[in-house]
Design goal:
Largest sheet: 3 strands, antiparallel
Keywords: Cell projection, Cilium, Flagellum
Distance between the termini: 19 Å
Protein name: Flagellar FlbD family protein
Number of strands: 5
Shape: globular
Organism: Mobilitalea sibirica
Strand order of the largest sheet: 3-4-5
Order of helices and strands: EEEEEH
Number of domains: 1
């Protein structure tokens, strides 16, 4: 799970495995595999970095 911030400043956790697409237009929109869309404050690059950290953490646990 990665933690992001909704536009109303609420922290939410989303399953990084369910992210299908991240777009900036100008707000950052995360589209999940279910089709649900979330508008968040973090940039596209910040989401990418969070997902990379999540993937590294998961792969270390598997060792």
């Amino acid at each position: 799970m990665i933690e992001v911030t909704s536009l109303n400043d609420r922290k939410i956790l989303i399953n990084a495995e369910l992210i299908e697409r991240v777009e900036e237009s100008p707000d950052t929109v995360v589209t999940l595999t279910s089709g649900k869309k979330l508008i968040i404050k973090e940039s596209r690059q910040e989401v990418k970095n969070l997902v990379i950290l999540y993937k590294k953490e998961v792969s270390c646990r598997e060792l």
